[in-house]
Design goal:
The complex is a heterodimer.
Chain A (H helix, E strand, L loop, with lengths): L2 H15 L3 E5 L15 H9 E3 L4 H13 L3 E6 L9 H8 L2 H4 L9 E6 L14 H4 L6 E3 L4 H13 L4 E6 L21 E4 L4 E5 L3 H13 L5 E5 L2 E3 L3 H11 L2 E8 L4 H13 L8 E5 L8 H7 L3 H13 L3
Parallel strand pairs in A: 1-2, 1-3, 3-4, 4-6, 5-6, 8-9, 8-11, 11-12
Antiparallel strand pairs in A: 5-10, 7-9
Helix pairs in contact in A: 1-7, 3-4, 8-12, 9-10
Chain B lengths: L11 H21 L14 H7 L8 E5 L3 H7 L3 H8 L17 E2 L4 E5 L5 H14 L2 H4 L6 E6 L6 H12 L4 E7 L2 E2 L2 E2 H4 L5 H7 L3 E6 L3 H16 L5 E6 L17 H8 L3 H11 L5 H23 L21
Parallel strand pairs in B: 1-3, 1-4, 4-5, 5-9, 8-9
Antiparallel strand pairs in B: 2-3, 6-7
The chains are: A alpha/beta, B alpha/beta.
Bound molecules: thiamine diphosphate (TPP).
Thiamine diphosphate (TPP) binds next to strand 6 of chain B.
């Protein structure tokens, strides 16, 4: 079972179990989804519920918001998070604000799905990770499935949520192998310890979880025991899980595929200062994407984004640090 | 719409226009005396549109509007008290004081704002109409409902306008597009922001039936809306009305109004929709001067009552500030 198939099964289950659910986006139907996630659904559910849209991100995300306000449970797919910028207006000014601005009268149970992440040589307009920008906005929630279980299970949570939820999927994880969850996945607002360790806490999310786990395995032979935390929810952030881990390891590295300046990693670092400062035995380090537009050539792209090697180097530095 | 002053013997359309006019004149006065702040966009001169449009809409239809929406809200049946309280930022306001003049919401009237991003309401209306088309009718009301969306000529320049018209037409959705063409987007005259100033033509380009209507003539607006609504309910897809009108006041209270001639304003004032309609009603023998004065006096009472209601309202305690960002408090 791949991450892609798990996403598809999640969609299938949602469409089967609730007549209010429909999927809408560019090429979700006849084409089968830009990443083949919705393949076969059009044939099964028809063009009303698997709705191909024109290239009108702002309007169809806004239409998803309007339909959600009227009691439907739309799942709006935006091909990649890069194109989601064309829908920022509707997301920020309507989805995120309507409830508060109307004095609590309006709910927007919108689910928006999109893909993020570099690693496929798609250059500077198809490779950036804007999750951190979206996480800046109160009024929406952001989920980042980094496992087959979450790829399958998070959608149900998102559809159940009365507020707008953005699910960020990772193009580089679509072929990740794993198993469907046997029971319900842990609540999506909880971060999960993907690998237990005692020397250092590695906080990350999305595609970087896999690289973090690789780095952690490789460091084990050097006697460094790395605890890897998968945030799963980027907003709200589960700081309790991070601080609990710090009370054991007293050291942390944050890995974020976004750019360092103003990043989600910066936010987590700041919160560690606020909530876990006295637990620390060493300054926290961040491994982020270099502050350049992601370039096309493979070697430059690889150099721009966090890699197991750069993660390991950061971990070694922080573990070696003594006051 | 329960709180409407009950004057069955007097024509409803005139009554609504007078309510809007008097409410707005009072709002301008209160604003100038510092009773409330923020932006205030007056609708004075454009009342025939709100008054003419709303009677054709059902309680189940959704209305999406702009920041120049006091008139729309009043004519839709949002209580004047709750609108005035909203201007004051009081909890008794229709948006609990959170929105102010530009963000009036009242879901009991299916009045969905109050959108201050130019053209931001169009995609919402499209989605609401999509939901009306898709939803199992047994579950959530009759499928003949529609979404009415009001916006200005300025919105026509935005991408959201074009994306939304195309979607509505492509999917034959029950959307009534109501373009209030007052010939200015803030200080930029229509011919200075549109290469093609025939706005109905743009809708036709998306294969949407469109008509140009004299928006200063409340009867014409009422008739055109009734016909368009009827076509939508018959399943003919979206309809577009370009309602030509004029705002007598500056864009907002901050606008020194330097971009247009006083003579142009005077020319349009000669077509004041309230004066014109009163004259017609008198000529037809429907009303006489005394009855009109009586009507005005009734509305003055309603406005005074709204001011008193707002003045005696309360401000939301600061402890409530972070409420309603999410539905469940635990979500933060
Ligand atoms: C997206 C966006 N751009 C700019 C503004 C600033 N602005 C507010 S109203 C306005 C003019 C809009 O004119 P029009 O749509 O004709 O409506 P009117 O004010 O005449 O009713 C502008 C430029 C805005 N609110 N939203």
């Amino acid at each position: 079972m791949t991450y892609r198939e798990a996403l598809r099964l999640g969609l299938l289950k949602a469409l089967e179990s609730d007549p209010r659910v429909f999927l809408m986006g560019e090429d979700v139907g006849a084409y089968g989804g830009a990443y083949a996630v919705s393949k076969g659904l059009y044939e099964r559910f028809g063009p009303e519920r698997i709705r191909d849209t024109p290239l009108s991100e702002n309007a169809f995300v806004g239409a998803g918001i309007g339909a959600a306000m009227m009691g439907m449970r739309p799942i709006v797919e935006v091909m990649t998070i890069n194109f989601a910028l064309l829908a920022l207006d509707q997301l920020v000014h309507n989805a995120a604000t309507l409830r508060h601005m109307s004095g609590g009268q309006i709910s927007v149970p919108l689910v928006m799905r999109t893909t993020s992440g570099a690693g496929r040589q798609l250059a500077a307009q198809h490779s950036h990770s804007f999750e951190g920008w979206f996480a800046h906005i109160p009024g929406i929630k952001i989920l980042a499935p980094a496992s087959v279980e979450d790829a399958y299970g998070m959608l149900e949570f998102a559809l159940y949520d009365p507020d707008p939820v953005l699910i960020v999927e990772y193009a580089s994880l679509f072929n990740l192998e794993g198993h469907l969850p046997e029971k319900a996945i842990p609540p999506v607002n909880q971060a999960l310890v993907r690998r237990a360790g005692s020397s250092i806490t590695l906080v990350t999310y999305g595609a970087m979880v896999i690289k973090a786990l690789t780095a952690a395995e490789e460091l084990a032979s050097e006697g460094i025991s790395t605890e890897v935390i998968d945030l799963r929810s980027l907003r709200p952030l589960d700081m309790a899980t991070i601080v609990t881990s710090l009370t054991k390891t007293h050291r942390a590295v944050i890995v974020d595929e976004g750019w360092k300046s103003g990043s989600l990693a910066a936010e987590i670092m700041a919160r560690i200062m606020e909530e876990g400062f006295y637990e620390l035995d060493a300054p926290v380090e961040r491994v982020c994407t270099l502050e350049v537009p992601i370039p096309y050539p493979r070697h430059l792209e690889e150099a721009a984004i966090p890699q197991p090697e750069t993660i390991k180097a950061a971990i070694r530095r922080v573990v070696a640090h003594h006051v | 719409m329960s709180d409407r002053v009950n004057l069955p013997h007097l024509p409803h359309l005139l009554h609504q226009m007078i309510r809007i006019r008097q409410f707005e004149e009072k709002a301008a006065e209160l604003y100038s005396s510092g009773k409330f702040r923020g932006f205030l966009h007056l609708y004075i001169g454009e009342e025939a549109i709100a008054a003419g449009v709303m009677p054709s809409l059902n309680a189940d239809d959704a209305v999406v509007s702009t920041y120049r929406e006091h008139g729309h809200a009043l004519a839709r049946g949002v209580s004047m008290n709750s609108i005035m309280a909203e201007m004051y930022g009081k909890v008794e306001g229709c948006s609990h004081g959170r929105g102010g003049s530009m963000h009036l919401f009242d879901i009991s009237r299916k009045f969905y704002g109050g959108n201050a991003i130019v053209a931001g309401g169009l995609p919402l209306a499209v989605g609401m109409a999509l939901a009306m088309k898709l939803r199992p009718s047994s579950q959530m009301g009759p499928s003949t409902s529609l979404a009415a969306c009001l916006f200005g000529d300025g919105a026509v320049a935005e991408g959201a306008f074009h994306e939304s018209l195309n979607l509505a037409a492509l999917w034959r959705l029950p959307v009534l597009f109501l373009c209030e063409n007052n010939f200015y987007a803030m200080g930029t005259a229509l011919h200075r922001h549109q290469a093609e100033t025939d706005l109905a033509l743009k809708a036709k380009g998306y294969r949407i039936a469109a008509h140009k209507i004299d928006g200063m003539d409340v009867d014409a607006v009422e008739k055109a809306t009734r016909e368009a609504v009827c076509k939508i309910r018959e399943g003919q897809g979206p309809q577009f009305l370009e309602l030509q009108t004029y705002r007598f006041r500056p864009h907002s209270m901050f606008d020194p109004d330097l971009y247009r001639d006083k003579s142009e304003i005077e020319k349009w004032r000669a077509h004041d929709p309230i004066v014109s309609y009163s004259t017609i009603l008198k000529k037809q023998g429907v009303l006489d001067d005394a009855q009109i004065e009586h009507l005005e006096a009734k509305v003055r009472e309603e406005v005074q009552g709204a001011v008193a209601f707002a003045e005696s309202g309360t401000f939301e305690p600061v402890e409530m500030l972070t409420r309603d960002v999410y539905t469940l408090e635990a979500s933060k």
